Amino acid sequence: MTAHAPVLGESEKPRLYILDTNVLMHDPAALFRFQEHNILLPMVVLEELDQHKKGVTEQARNVRQVSRYLDEMLHDGDDLDAGLPLPYAQGRLYFQTIAHSQVLPADLPGGKADNEILAVTLELQKRHPEWQIILVSKDINLRIKGRTLGVRVEDYHSDRALEDADLLYTGLEVLGADFWQSHSRDLDAWQESGRSFYKISGPATRHWHPNQFITLSPEGAGEEFAAIVRNIHPDHCIIERVTDYRSERHAVWGIQARNREQNFALNLLMDPDIDFVTLLGHAGTGKTLLTLAAALHQILDERRYAEAVITRATVPVGDEIGFLPGTEEEKMLPWMGALEDNLEILARGSDEGGSWGRGATQDLVSKRIRVKSMSFMRGRTFLEKFVIIDEAQNLTPKEMKTLITRAGPGTKIVCLGNIAQIDTPYLTETTSGLTYVVDRFKNWGHSGHITLRRGERSRLADFANEAL
C-alpha cells in the first residue's frame, strides 16, 4: 500500500510573503519583521525602488536604506534560488529570478507595476500549492484587485502604534460618582504655593498616567472637581487641582477656555515643566488659537521662550517648495492660512489702541514668530523655542522623531492635528506619527496630551461637523 503525504491546511502551510514597493518605502526594516516566515521581492519591486531612490524626501531616504540592507545581505556566489538568511529573523529572502507566465485578465494589462506584482503572486500560487502565498501592500486598491483574483492579501501591520484608533489615549478620565467613597480612606490634602494637592491611594490610580486629567463629573453637571496627575508611585498618586482658564482673571493673551478640554489644554501649554504637548481635535476645537495664545504669553509677557517656530506638513510631505517665489517663510505662507487667521483674532485684544495699536501688536508678534519648512529641519537644534508642529497627523513616526529630536535646552514642542483628516498616502489613523507619539509619550512625566471634543468656531461650523 502506497503511503500518501498528509494534506496540510492553509494555517499549517509555510508562508511566503510578497512585499509591495510601498511597504519598503514606508518601513525599510519591514524586511526583518516577518519573524520565521519567508519573503519574496518581485523584480518589478526592485525596479520601482531604483526609480524612487533619488531625492530628499523621507520616502527616497527609506528606499536608499532598503538598498543598503540588500547590498549587505548579497554576496558573490550566493545561491539566490535557496534564498538569503534574514538578519534579526528566522526566515529567508527570495528574489524573482525567472520570468512568470501567468496570463492576467484582459482588463488588467501587463506593464503596470501593480499588475505585474499580482501576476507574480498568481504564478507562485500555481507553482507552489504547498506554500501559503500572501501579498502584503499598503495600497488599498491593489488589495482589492488581489482579492477579486483569489489572492490572499494583507495590509502591513508592524508599523501600527495601536490596533484600533478608538483605543488611543485621550488624556482624560471621568471618574465614577463613588470615587471619593472608595478612595477617601488614605486621602491626604495640602496646599503649597497657592496650589492644592491630594495624595490618593486605591484601585483607580493604578491606571493613571503622568499629567493625565481626572474629573469627577460630566461637563456641565454643576461644580466639577478637575485635577492633573503629578506623581505616580507604586502605592499612591499625587494630583493637583488645575488652574481654571475659563475665568477672565486667568485669560491667556486675552483668550479664555470655553470648555473643559480647552481648559485642560491651556494647563498643559502653560506648564513650564511639560516639554512636549499633543493636542488632538477636529476643525474648530481651538487647537491652534490656544497654542498661539500660550506661546505669545510666555514669549512676550513671561519671557520664558525666545520665539515661536511654526512648521507643518505640506502635502505631500517633504516635497520641495522651491517653485514658490520668495524666502523660506514666504514660500510657507500659503500653507499657513490658519496661522494668519488666528493671529488676527489675537490682535483684537489691542482694541484700546485702535487700528494703530492693533498694527503695533501685529508687528511685535510677527517678529517673534518664525515659519519654517520641514524640508530644512535636519541638523537644526532649537534653543529656548516654543515649537508648534501643525497638521502633525500627516507625519510618519520617523519624520516625527526627526522633528522632536531637534529640541534643545529650554524648548517646548506642541503637536497639533486631527487623525481623522490624514492626507499622506499609506498613512492611517493607527500608523500616523501623531498617534505614535501620543502612545509612546503617555508615560513620560514631562509630556501631556488632551483630545479636544467640542467645536467652538461657530454654530454653523458645529452643525456642519455633525450633519455633513
Automatic annotation (TrEMBL):
InterPro entries given in the database record: P-loop_NTPase (IPR027417), PhoH (IPR003714), PhoH2-like (IPR051451), PIN-like_dom_sf (IPR029060), PIN_dom (IPR002716)
Keyword Ribonucleoprotein annotated: no
Gene3D superfamilies noted in UniProt: 5'-nuclease, P-loop containing nucleotide triphosphate hydrolases
Name of the protein: PhoH family protein
Record domain PIN: where: 15-144
One Pfam family cited in the UniProt record for this chain: PhoH
Source organism per UniProt: Acidithiobacillus sulfuriphilus
Family indicated by similarity: In the N-terminal section; belongs to the PINc/VapC protein family.
CDD domains in the record: PIN_VapC_PhoHL-ATPase (cd09883)
Keywords attached to this entry: ATP-binding, Nucleotide-binding
GO molecular function: ATP binding
GO cellular component, one term: cytosol
Keyword Repressor among record annotations: no
SUPFAM superfamilies: P-loop containing nucleoside triphosphate hydrolases, PIN domain-like
